[in-house]
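Worked example

This section walks through a single chain of length 62. The input is the sequence exactly as stored; nothing has been trimmed or padded.
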Amino acid sequence: MEHKVAYSVQETARALSLGTTTVKKLIATGQLPSVRVGRRRLVPRSALETYINRLLDDQASA
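Given that input, the structure is written out below as tokens.
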């Protein structure tokens, strides 16, 4: 995966090895922040890193 500033929903799904429906749910519930640019929904790279780090922290404390 190339290092972009933000990823489409489909690119985010591939990066996380999840389905697009799951990514859309994460965005809808606010667990994965995103921005709207025109008609496109983009997930900032920093949001992906924050999401993964939060999952790691949650699993480490469990």
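What to look for: Helices lie at 9-16, 20-28, 45-61.
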